[in-house]
Amino acid sequence: MVLRFWPFFFSALAALAGVTGCGQPATVAECEEIIERIARLKLQEKRPDDEKYIREEIDATKKALADTTMKHCVGRRITDDAKRCMREAKTSKEIVEQCFN
Fold first, then answer.
1. Rounded to an integer, what distance in angstroms lies between the CA atom of residue 54 and that of residue 61?
2. Tens digit of pLDDT for each residue in 35-77?
3. Number of neighbours of residue 82 by Cβ within 10 angstroms
4. Given its phi and psi angles, is residue 78 left (phi above 0), alpha (psi -120 to 50 degrees) or beta?
């Protein structure tokens, strides 16, 4: 399942990597929150009532993307507005297209 989400994660992390000059460096926890939020929204589209499945897939996704997260997200600049947008987004597409662009 993780591979299906790869384009969304890569797009979000790539957009975050391109942000410079404002905000503060993203922490490991913030980067994991981004991954979790995108995964949760995508998974809820498919199986909204299966929290156990969603949690297992989120955990697997975080593990699979750990190296990528460290390389492309941690330490990159992230603004409070981008974090707020990500937390309030209703879809993963919204996160990628509006929060980190």
1. 10
2. 889 889 988 888 888 999 999 988 988 888 888 878 888 888 8
3. 24
4. beta
